[in-house]
Specification:
The protein is α/β, with parallel strands linked by helices. It is 33% helix and 16% strand. It has 12 helices and 11 strands. The strands form 3 sheets. The chain has a 6-stranded parallel sheet with strand order 5-4-1-9-10-11, with helices on both faces. The protein has a 3-stranded antiparallel sheet with strand order 7-6-8. Strands 2-3 form a two-stranded antiparallel sheet. Strand 4, helix 7 and strand 5 form a beta-alpha-beta unit. The model has no long low-confidence stretch (mean pLDDT 92). Bound molecules: zinc ion. Zinc ion binds next to loops.
Length: 289
Amino acid sequence: MAPPKDYDSIPAFHDKLLRSKRILAVCGAGLSAASGLPTFRGAGGLWRNHDAIQLATPEAFGDDPGLVWLFYAYRRHMALQVQPNAGHHALAAFAKRNPDFLCLSQNVDNLHLRAHHPAPQLRLLHGSLFSLKCSRQPQCTWTDPYNDADPLCPSLAAAADDNDPTLLDASKPLAPIPTSALPHCPECQTGLQRPGVVWFGEPLDEAMLDDIEAWIAADVVDMVIVVGTSSVVYPAAGFAEDARTEGKTSVVTVNMERSVAGMREGDFMFTGDAASLLPELLKPIIGDL
Ligand SMILES: [Zn+2]
């Protein structure tokens, strides 16, 4: 099926943007990739010959918490080395100018908040690399909402050493980290501290999802902007579907991969780097960054 008329026209998009009030954004890994962060997905989804998806599970943490922690310590370190890009800054500036804008993000790297995105207008769907919780949750409810110590503890120092050959050279085996050398939960004393991210097989935060659904249901959503992921892949597809009122809502995709599948009249698709496209797309509201 042919894409809708003017689907990649920036003037047509600006016209719709200026007539839009309630706007939802859903951000994925492509936005972080524009800051230079590895996404650990697809062909590049390996960390030291481990499949990153296999490490991001409660089972992997149960089997070898030291290995999983080293992977996350490395990701924390990497996220601290990069900067929010112009895409993050454009979304943050847009949020400050439009109180009816809500941004959902799958990214756990804290780059939205480092770009000063207003926290009440941001929902971190998959948590944050820089929050900690107890491995015995939900039995133990201990959390630390923000901790950016790098390294988190001495046993994870290798992850914060950019020159440590044992960490960078995947062919060299890592020395196992005993559980006793990992930080324990200060509340129950028996659980381990673990990254405050949602792992594969774990549900998203129910209260947060209820809150997002309530926001979507409160009134017509004029526009859904999907950044750095596909609007036909979950979870972005689900939010776009829930938020769409036929004939009123434009779904706008900003992604490196062009995909016009499933587009409806009034939808837009812009192919390229979110860091250069978002400032241009939001310029009528945010001006020059
Ligand atoms: Zn605990």
